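Now read the record:
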Amino acid sequence: MSAVNAVAVTLIAPLAALGIYFIAAGTWNRPPVWGVLVVLWLFCGWAAATMDRGLIRERVKPGPGSRDHLTRPVGTVLLFAHWILAGLDVGRFQWSVVPETLQWVGLAGYALAMAGMMWVMRVNPFYSSVVRIQSDRGHRPITAGPYGLVRHPGYTFTIFGVLSGALALGSWVGMIPLIGVLPLFLRRTLIEDRMLRTELDGYAEYAGRVRYRLVAGVF
């Protein structure tokens, strides 16, 4: 995939994701959700304009050797179910109501999570969408920025972004599929950490200095 096509994917994906929600809801009158779209598009626009082209290609069409064939497909299904259920709930059936104040808090949290992801991708050119040793890209341990606090900050910000973004969508029922997201990413973190410790030069030493994987002082 060319860099141009990879950039196009990063810009179109947010429209497709939120389009599913709005179609399910049958209404466009959801200001916090428009806020999520704006934040997501700003993030993707930043990525398209400034992110390393090799990293964009790696994230959109990763190289061979993935050790985790579960998180990506199952996570995608869970997110689709989340968007559809949330849209049906708030627009057509109104099974549950997230107070509007909490929706805006969720949007603020989502914006913080996306800012964190920008930080991660700024310092880590190997932040692939799969779990693999990127020997074809000169893979090495990254210790700067958020990696000085925890070893897998990208997953920390991803989990926080998914949960806070769910609040902004305004549906408690829509959060049910997300119950599976946390164990998926915990499993992925353990798989990746074990792989890096045993196969990436210098990572074991780094892990000795930065003890925690996702949340400092907790895990």
User: Anything to note?
Assistant: Residues 37 and 53 are 23 Å apart (CA to CA).
